[in-house]
Amino acid sequence: MASSSTRKGKGKSSQITIQITGKGSEAYKDIDWKTLSDDEARAIEKEASLAWKVLSNTQTQALQDASVEDVEKKLSEILKLTNSEIDLSESVLLDYYVCGFWWAKERGFTTQQLSGFFTVLHTLLENIREKQLSLADNLSEFRKMLVGIGADNNSPSKGLDFFDLEHAKAITDFLQGTLFQHHKMYEFLFHSERTEEIVGTELVVEVLPPAAMPYPPPLDEGLSEEVYLRHVAPPPPTPTPEPQPQEEDTEEEAGTDIKSETPKLIEEQVGAAEAASLVQPEALLASVTAEEVKTMFDRVSKELFAGLQSEISEKLLEREAEIIGRINKIHRVAEA
């Protein structure tokens, strides 16, 4: 089989005739695709060929010589997937095309085979997006594309006759493990609406205190509010217990006894004073023993200082509890 292409310039044109013989990749082994323009490459192909449908000869050669990062960048421009960094669906599509192209490149496909294989990737994915084909229908379409591989030139072909049977098997295995295995995922990607979820978070910011001095206290001395309240802040005042009714009655009875005894004591003291005025001091002191003097002093002191002593004892107990509480907090802070 002979194919020809016409190359035109200013005022002249040249026609290139290329003889294609054999079958599969052997039929195109003598063609140097780097020397041909996009139009010349299309002119060589058969009418139903799948090469150069999505990627032209020039684009395929540029991708063939690029690194994987450059392949991703150039494919995003060619396929107009410009929002792949922020759009999840575009990111999935770009990943699908980049992985397929890089796999074919590592298999050693020629420029023509890379373009044809990329057309297969694009067609099968568009069957899901546009035609909404099921997995079984998409597999049937893929089988139709393989018709003519390994056959003679006169046999009907669906556009992939530049592949061999080994290439066809490798492509089938690759698609089986990628597109066909995740067919439901791509169906969901194209035909299911996803609700947008807005994720928020609450941020608590502690504001610096006002500067009482030229500068506020240093931040390295600061403590969080939780630690301060637990270990540093003084304890709340102890609530005063409410008096019980029985205690009030006891206090009233004690007050009544004190009041009843006080006039008696006064009367006794007055009588003793009157008697002392009548009796000589020497005779009065001689009649009083040391034990009676001690007993009188004990009785008077108990009556005068009983209330004061109980009040001082309560204040001492409260102060002792407060000091013990502060010591315990200091120990807890030191252990933490």
Uncertain stretches of 5 or more adjacent residues: 4-14
Sheet-strand content, in percent, reads: under 5%
What structural class is derived from the secondary structure elements?
mainly alpha
- From the N-terminal CA to the C-terminal CA, the straight-line distance is 89 Å
Question: What is the helical fraction, as a range of percent?
Answer: 55-70%
How many helices? The count is 12
* Radius of gyration over C-alpha positions, nearest whole angstrom: 53 Å
The pLDDT mean sits at 79
> How do the helices and strands follow one another from N- to C-terminus?
EEHHHHHHHHHHHH
Inertia-based shape: rod-shaped
Explained architecture:
The chain is mainly alpha-helical and 336 residues long. Among the domains are: 45-191, no CATH class; 226-235 and 280-335. It has helices at 38-44, 57-64, 68-78, 88-106, 111-129, 135-145, 165-177, 183-191, 225-232, 245-278, 281-287, 290-335, and strands at 2-8, 13-19. The longest helix has 46 residues, at 290-335. Residues 233-244 have a biased composition (Pro residues).
